[in-house]
Design brief:
By secondary structure, the protein is mainly alpha-helical. It has 20 helices and no strands.
């Protein structure tokens, strides 16, 4: 968790500054918008592929590669004195910035299923600490001469530090367990059975993985098989719920600052304090998943359904609020409900999809969220044509559509926790 927290701290320093840096390069708004969309588009396609690849080669190897190439992307960004280098940096990051999702899968592989939701919640909470501190540090650094380039270099250095820490952890495990080191992704057991007829796979603990030509081909075939199993599975409703709630939450945040200024005359500075307050509560919510899961007796479906209903009600309350204090109350409880819902939907994906392709499942979930990032700005713009609170009201309606889907599929969610993927 400490490694991932540093990751988020570095990223949150640089992300708020990207639009300002692109503008300083002197390109047109159209070019800036096109380059800015590179990250989301690449994440849409690469999330599933990288997640599937982690099922094949193992989480440690995949995570280390993602950290190193992400560091390369931010290092190029620290030298981006023209739009070409900026675009190249965003391409590297768009393809390989999956450290959070791979770390989440790695953790889910290492803990018992009944403890997975609790651990994922703690992981999300620890990661969110970076978003509380990072923007403030980045804003301070950017006021210095060459501040953006310095901030990007520090971000790249943090990724290199993460890679070093992770490497030392791997070496410690290797020295402790030798060649019998714990298998950290269950899909590897299945892959070993498929490939053992042709050759003996190297130990997962060897990060210096030397793959011959037939191994690379085996990896490609295995990834394609796993993608086919997902396409033939009955997980469409889970991913649709994730998409609807992702879009709903993004709509709520899309014009939050502008809406509060137009509706209540609230200055951006005060709105910033409110956002930081909500982020802090979101961190606290992650650590409350333990008591919540005990209260609901590990019933992820029940927790997700109630948190989604609460999210929808609070979005509508925010949309219809006539004073700032109602906004504060709705933001307070939304921080809890959205954090709990995000952890629960991940756990539900892994529960219904099974463990043999958990990396791919997480990757598809990230791709679904990427679709939400592409769709939500358009929906937000259309909704704002009618009212400043239109986006959040629309988000509430989409959330209730997700609730309806969950209610209609209650028997499947509440039934057997066996694997739903078809055998490949």
């Amino acid at each position: 968790m400490e490694v991932e927290e540093k990751d988020f701290f570095g990223v949150s320093m640089i992300v708020p500054l990207l639009s300002l840096h692109v503008k300083s390069l002197g390109v047109s708004p159209t070019v800036a918008g096109a380059v800015g969309s590179l990250y989301g588009i690449l994440q849409l396609f690469s999330s599933t592929l990288v997640g599937s690849w982690s099922d094949v080669v193992g989480r440690p190897y995949c995570l280390l590669v993602c950290i190193l190439f992400s560091a390369l992307g931010y290092f190029v960004l620290s030298m981006s004195t023209n739009i070409f280098l900026f675009a190249l940096a965003r391409i590297f990051v768009g393809i390989f910035k999956h450290t959070h999702s791979i770390s989440k899968v790695l953790i889910s592989d290492l803990v018992p299923e009944k403890e997975r939701l609790l651990v994922i919640g703690h992981f999300n909470a620890a990661s969110s600490f970076g978003f509380i501190l990072g923007p403030a540090v980045g804003g301070y650094l950017t006021e210095l001469e060459g501040g953006f380039y310095l901030t990007a270099f520090i971000c790249a250095s943090i990724f290199i530090l993460n890679a070093g820490v992770f490497w030392m952890l791997l070496q410690h495990e290797k020295n402790t367990h030798g060649n019998e080191w714990i298998t950290v992704n269950k899909a590897r057991d299945i892959l070993s059975t498929e490939v053992k007829q042709s050759r003996q796979l190297q130990s997962l603990s060897h990060v210096k993985y030397s793959a011959p030509a037939e191994s690379s081909w085996t990896q490609v075939v295995s990834v394609l098989k796993r993608l086919g199993s997902i396409a033939r599975s009955d997980l469409w409703d889970v991913f649709l719920v994730r998409l609807l709630m992702s879009v709903a939450v993004m709509l709520y945040h899309s014009n939050f600052v502008l809406a509060l200024e137009e509706r209540f005359g609230l200055k951006p500075k005060l709105t910033g304090y409110l956002i930081s307050y909500s982020s802090t509560l979101g961190v606290a919510a992650g650590f409350l998943l333990g008591p919540i899961t005990k209260l609901y007796q590990q019933n992820t479906y029940a927790i997700l359904l109630r948190s989604t209903v609460l999210t929808c009600v609070l979005m509508l309350l925010y949309s219809l609020s006539e004073n700032v204090w109602t906004v504060v109350v709705s933001s307070t409880f939304l921080a809890f409900s959205t954090t709990v819902g995000r952890s629960c939907v991940t756990d539900l994906e892994l529960t219904l999809g099974g463990n043999e392709a958990s990396g791919m499942l997480i990757g598809i979930g990230q791709s679904v969220s990427a679709v939400g990032r592409i769709v939500s700005p358009l929906l937000s713009g259309i909704a704002q044509e009618f009212s400043p609170c239109g986006p959040s009201f629309l988000g509430g309606l989409l959330g209730f559509a997700a609730v309806l889907i969950m209610i209609l599929n209650k028997s499947r969610y509440s039934g057997s926790r066996s694997t739903k993927l078809k055998s490949t």
